[in-house]
Amino acid sequence: MKHTIGMWMYQNSGGDKIEQKIVSLLKDRDIDVETGLNLRYAVAKNDKLMINNLILNDLDLFFSYNAGEQTQYQVYLYKILDKLMPTINSYGAFELTEDKFQTSFILKKHGVPCTDFRLCHRDDAKYLKKFIHDWQKIVYKPVDGWGGVGLTKIENEETLDVLMPFLNQADLRFFYVEKFINYDNTDFRVDIVDGEFVSCYGRKAPKDSWKTNITSGGTVFLREADDKLVQTAKKAALATGLDIAGVDIIYDRDKEEYVVLEVNGIPAFATPAQEKMGLNFNEKKIELIVNLIDRKVKG
Ligand SMILES: Nc1ncnc2c1ncn2[C@@H]1O[C@H](COP(=O)(O)OP(=O)(O)O)[C@@H](O)[C@H]1O
Ligand SMILES: [Mg+2]
Predict the structure, then answer these.
(1) pLDDT (tens digit, 9 = 90+) per residue, 269-293?
(2) Nearest-angstrom CA–CA distance, 174 and 172
(3) In which domain, by residue range, is 172 found?
(4) Does residue 219 belong to any structural domain of this protein?
(5) Whether the Cβ atoms of residue 262 and residue 146 lie closer than 8 Å to each other
(6) Same structural domain for residues 139 and 120?
(7) What is the CB < 6 Å shell around ligand 1?
(8) What global pTM score does this model have?
(9) Residue closest by Cα to atom 14 of ligand 1
């Protein structure tokens, strides 16, 4: 029987080329692909989801891989699509890892080393002082942020007092804070697909910064993974249920162990510029993804 999957993949930074390779490898396995399925253009007609004349219900699987263009409407339909067919990543795992508190909670529960954290209601800001007292330095994080935006290091009660009026004004539901980890301002990005190790590279924070995000001025560098690092990343992927995971890890100099900072459900492939630098994992990642789709579709 002929199978057809739907795909929505980012097209910038070499994503279009990656998509073509995936489509062609799937074709070799008798799996057709409807590409460019942007749920922004989907319409629900009773129990059918349509994009133009295509009935999405008829697809055998949906591959959603476009972090940059994701809106609430698309995510809303992703959720119902997940009830019709296998999705990659599964909606549940995707939704979990979009939220830092929910992710940290599950990681801790599964014994994956990650930073200590606290969550409290906005009216319980008094606890924040206690957290600073316990840990000296804390990081305030929006639970649904990205790119290092909105992360604030709070090193003493005075900083907190200055910050509080702004936080109160921001109309937050709650406060999520983490213990600030003593680390060397570099991190590891480890990609795991279908439980297998794909790749590792590093990012380095710019001078005088503690955030390694590229959008905060961080730079990518080649970096090997040791066994402990790979095991930590695999545990994080398993705990969150992501088929495709990009696990961000730093090395805690006080505890002398790797700690998972966050798990990304749509980790980018190496860009053409990064490939020139020597990040050569795209082929392997594509192969593992194709195997995964093949198994889920035919299984
Ligand atoms: N608890 C922490 N201790 C020390 N540094 C941190 C901590 N949390 C985040 N960072 C730094 O801030 C960066 C962004 O944090 P992260 O939780 O990954 O949020 P984002 O989703 O915005 O990337 C990390 O890459 C790391 O460099
Ligand atoms: Mg991050």
Answers:
(1) 999 999 999 999 999 999 999 999 9
(2) 6
(3) 116-179
(4) yes
(5) no
(6) yes
(7) 115, 139, 141, 145-149, 151, 178, 180-181, 187, 205, 210-213, 248, 261-262
(8) 0.96
(9) 148
